[in-house]
Amino acid sequence: MRGRLTLVAGLVMTLLCLAVLATALIGLRGLASQYNVDRIVRVTLKTIHMLKNDQIPDVLPAQGIAGLQVIRPDGSVESSSVLLQGKPRMAFFQPPDTTVRQDMVHCDSDLWPDQCMVIVAIRVYSPDGDYLIYAADPVVPWYVDPRVDLLLFLGAGVIVTVTTFGTYVLVGKALRPVDAISEELATITGSELDHRVPVPKNHDEIRRLAETANATLDRLEEAVEQQRRFASDASHDLRSPLTAMRAEVESALLDVETADWEQTGEAILGSIDRLQALVDDLLQIARLDSGAPGRMDPVDLGQLAATELDRRRRRVRVIRELQPGVIIMGDRLRLARVLTNLLDNAERHANSVVIVKVYEEALCGVLEVIDDGAGVPRDKWEHVFQRFTRLDAARSRDAGGTGLGLAIARQICEGHGGTLAIEDSVKGARFVLRIPVSR
Predict the structure, then answer these.
(1) Domain range holding 264?
(2) pTM of the entire predicted model
(3) Same domain membership, residue 74 and residue 10
């Protein structure tokens, strides 16, 4: 990366220097051209002075320019510089009536073939008629002067070299923490997620990058650890019904003739039911973790609760307080699963009655499931929503739960933009679901 950045910096500086060189050459050429014209004009002014004093010699001094001519009012050449002796007038244009001077550039003239010349023409008033003085010198080339060009290019080369070297040093110093971060990230594997990248001292973008990488590694380690615990708990809970079925079969096989195969089959079916429930919950957890979206249809929460209560076999008495017209947007099947899980949990822990309430409160549809059991200790209110969590009371009263029902219910509620929590109750446990109503 350091080499690429240095190369890019070198290319950028080279382009900038070339642009500056081009601008400088354009400016120098403009200055040189103006200086050249001014020099030609000074020569013509000296010639005018000689003309006014009637001191025009036959051969005019060139005074450092290519050519100089004095034209009489009749158009003939009165005098010229040494290189133009015996030659015709260099130009025929005249200044306009509104001015005494005009400048023009002539290329490939008879006097200077294959060359462009700057010609300055000045009209000089005389009683016998106006004289014209022509002075010419080559046009300044685009490169102005090779010596100037050499100095400019040498200066640009020095600037590019110094800048490239400085960029290499500075980029190397700046990217040294990035190299350290890359080396540390390369050593991290699935079994060694406790590594963290070094955080630079300077408060800059690289420090923020390192902090973000460490935060990501924290979340990754937590997620992997959660998956490991999940796999361990799932294996343990799957092993229990399998062990029970194996024990029933082995016990029956010890005495095939006297074994009660009907009782053995019923016991095995019970274990299979528990195994199927656990597998169903695991599949539901997998679908929820994958983020697969559910349907979003208008659902009457009170009607949904009534329908689910009607189709259940009652283990305890259920009191309904269902307000109609509480409409929420959601997946009917998933919301039914929430109610089923809450009712299963309530019936396992209720002594004699379960209360189901549906009403609207603060723009939310509210579903309450209350049992008259022993309740949940306050310090366990959040713990019961963790996966494979079953309190000691639940284990002693009913071994059929998977420990996933409440976790699934909360995850479905959060997927609908709602909440599921345990709240205060006079007796027993009071689970409260809140989901925004649909308008």
Answers:
(1) 189-292
(2) 0.49
(3) yes
